[in-house]
Amino acid sequence: MNFAEVAPRAYKLMIALNTYTTEHVDHTLLELVKLRASVLNGCAFCVDMHTEDALKAGENPQRLFAVSVWRESRFFSDTERVALELTDAVTRPGEHGVPDDLWERASKAFAEKELADLLALIISINGLNRLGVTLDSATERHLHS
C-alpha cells in the first residue's frame, strides 16, 4: 500500500508534524532521537537515513554507533542522555508510561516549549517508523520522499 496515496490527508498531517519538529528541535539532538527511536522500532530504512543525515551534518560517527548503547557510552551530554532516555520511555512505554522521575529530569533539562517540541519529535518519528515497518521497507521510500 502507498499510504500517501490511500490516505493523503493523514500522511500530510504526519509529514507536517515531522516538518515542525525539524524546524523546532536542535538538529544534532533531532538526529540522535530519530536514530534511537528507529533502532528501537527496527526501522532499517530510517536508521540508514538518519545516520546518513547526521553524518552529512558533521556528526561524529562514534556517537552514532553508540546510540544503540547510549546508557553505557561516554559520548553524550547530560541533556542528550535525558532526551535519549525519554525517547526510550516514549517509544517503549512501560505499564505506567513515562516514569515520574524521568519526566522531572526532562523538565529540568529542557524549557517547557523545548520539552513539548522534543515530545512531538519522538511521537512523530515513532509514527513514521511504525508506518514504514508495517508497510515494508519498499514502501518506506514513499513515506520519506
UniProtKB/TrEMBL annotation:
Residues 8-88 form the Carboxymuconolactone decarboxylase-like domain. Transmembrane segments: none annotated. It comes from the Bacteria. NCBIfam families: ahpD_dom. This is Alkylhydroperoxidase. The lineage of its organism: Bacteria, Bacillati, Actinomycetota, Actinomycetes, Pseudonocardiales.
